[in-house]
Amino acid sequence: MQYLNALTAILPVVVLLGTAVILLMLEVFSLGKDRIWAANFSLVGLAVAFYFAMKGLGAEPQALFAGPGKSAPIIADAFGNLAAAVMLAGAFVAVLLSPEYIKNARCSSGEYYALILFSVVGMIVMAMAGDLITFFLGLEVMSIGVYVLTGIRRNDLRASEAALKYLLMGAFATGFLLMGIAFIYGATGTVALPELARQMVAPVGGAPILVTGLVLLLVGVAFKVAAVPFHLWAPDVYEGAPTPITGFMAVGVKAAAFVALVRIVAVGFANSEESAVVIPFISVIAYLTIIVGNLLAIVQRNVKRMLAYSSVSHAGYALIGVVALARGEESAGAAVLFYLTAYTFMTLGAFGVLVFLERKEGGAESERFGAFAGMGYRHPALGVAMSVFMVALAGMPPTGGFFGKLYIFSSAINAGEMGLVFAGILGSIISVYYYLRVIVSFYMVDVPDAGPLPTATRSRHLTAGLIIATAGVLTLGIFPNQWIELGKLAFKSLQLG
Amino acid sequence: MANYGTIFVLFLIAAMIALILWTLASVLGPKAPNPRKERPFECGNPPLGPVVRRVSVKFYIVALLFIVFDIETVFLYPWAVIFSELGWLGFWTMVTFVAILGLGLVYVWKKGALDWA
Amino acid sequence: MELTHYLLLAAALFSLGLYGVASRPNAVGLLASIELMANAVNLNLVAFSRFQGQQTGQIFALFATAITVAEVVVGLALVIVLFRSRGDVRLDLAKELKG
Q1: ipTM score assigned to the predicted complex
Q2: Under an 8 A CB cutoff, do C71 and A140 touch?
């Protein structure tokens, strides 16, 4: 049967949706009062979905859910499945970080895990979107889930304000994105990516409209990935959101947006004259994002805000890859995927350490650099893990962060974007300062009045999450070839579809 | 467009009549303001409490839920128009959609968001 | 009526929405302004769809409406939460945007 066949091709999505809906039902029929079951149940769902995503890597690209004579809204190919696997791994680690936080913050949480799963569904839909409508739908499913997750601590004013601000800014950006898609549709008469590519071969009549549309679309996406100058919401939202969710949206939302962007650029706008017109626009955003993100990260006193700006600057590095891809450099597709994978593990790991260190009553105070003094001696394993994440974020070997930047920069050199590479290297050098500052404060002399020590965690989930993140960062750093080859294979599947 | 010209003239005349009557009334009418007259009119009684009352937040929650479920049904209309062309694929897709929506309703119901008290 | 007329109207509505976002100090007003922007887009979509003689744009407008409604509903729910804990719903985005 056609429908069942279509569902089998997107099993990761089906499994996630099923898990999330069952979670909600279990929650309201109060079958489990113990909160840890919800986390475990969603971990099982994510693991099964991950298995199916990896299995889908070998399958032929399939165009699904097409109406008679219409283009397909969903394309299940190796690229989509590999991207899904990255997002699922990110969500898995984010869920592992959550029980400890929920216990400390005492926030209600049956829906918490279901919302994470729903958001991941949106991300996967974005990665597999065959037309701009589906891309938009996935983006919104993801975003709405994350808006609610940001404000899930209803009794915390800071969180509610952050959530509302995030939602308003996000909806505002959605307006631009929609307007962009409307213009692209108006200029070409289609929203399907393969069809767009065909339209591009012949010069399009409404080229100025098309360029306007592309620019507006990019503005919308730039808001979502917090690229400068559309990043102003990020620090407050990152600070106000529950820490595991901050990690989740720093990696998940960004990965989904960039993966979708890669697909749109590679399938819809490859080598078209109009997309060449907007390359300078993307380049300017990339320059600004790298420089401003890194400079603002230096002056932050709160580690959570510092990580927010660091994630802004990382969006800039990934944008270099997008520019190279738009120039027709195909290795950039796999490079961006690799970068996002490494970024997922190192950022989630850093937020996991924050979850560990945040004290019950500390609030924003416990996130300051000074509060970490001596932590490296009190919790040696934690100190090592945090050092690994910071070294990786700074882009130094032998970590995945190093190879991520290496692949991005080398593809940009192939594309002839020397200026961007220079900016990227400069940004990385600046970033060494504030990442190393975290390590330094970890191993600073023990401050006697550092307040009550956080007790060593008994949460096996948090420990497992940190171990997976560390292992991920190091594995990508020691065996980068396997993953980049997988990325190249996946990127090839884009052209087959 | 020309046919609408007469209607436009009609609007203009109507507006002018209203304007003239209003001006005449305010110029010629006798005025004797006193505090009692300037109070908001509430069926002859002295007004009770502020005019703008706070509405219970329950209205908002029910209204929000209504809007969500209301707007989702919009998808049924275009689907119904080309139902026969879509075949079983379209049928089962919509069944899934409605089923998930139904489970959403179950969730809202059991969560107690529909209880007034 | 030409396509340009619709596009101009949509552009005007979109700009009004933009102005509203920049000037309103109230979260509900912000949501209304954003909704105005979204509806300008819908007008564009339907106009393009009509002048190209195909339905894709109309279907997209339908999806866009449903999604923006969902967004606004979540927004209003957050407004209620904020109102319960703070007593007002001021949120000056223009000020926030300046840093």
Answers
A1: 0.92
A2: yes
Q: Cβ neighbours of residue A24 under 8 Å, at least 6 residues apart?
A: A110, A111, A114, B103, B107
Cβ-contact A62, A234 below 8 angstroms: no
Question: Would you call C78 and A151 a contact, using CB atoms and an 8 Å cutoff?
Answer: yes
Q: What is the CATH number of domain B2-111?
A: 1.20.58
Contact residues, chain A, for C31 at CB < 8 Å: 168, 171
Q: What is the pLDDT of residues A281-311, one digit of tens each?
A: 999 999 999 999 999 999 888 888 899 999 9
Reported as a single tens digit per residue, the pLDDT across A189-237 is 889 988 888 877 655 555 788 888 889 999 999 999 999 888 888 888 9
A28 within 8 A of B104, measured Cβ to Cβ: no
Helix (H) or strand (E) holding A496: helix A480-496
Q: Domains in chain C, start-ordered, CATH in brackets?
A: 3-86 (1.10.287.3510)
Structure tokens at A237: 């939202």
Instruction: Provide the angle, in degrees to the nearest 10, between the axes of the packed helices A480-496 and A400-414.
Output: 50
Name the residue of chain C whose CA is nearest to A178's CA. Answer: C41
At C90 the three-state DSSP class reads strand
Q: How many residues does chain C have?
A: 99
Residue extents of the structural domains in chain B: 2-111
Chain B within 8 Å of C77 (Cβ-Cβ)?
Answer: yes
Angle between helices C27-52 and A157-188 in degrees, nearest 10: 20
| Range 46-105 of B in CB contact (< 8 A) with A | 82, 85-90, 92-93, 100, 103
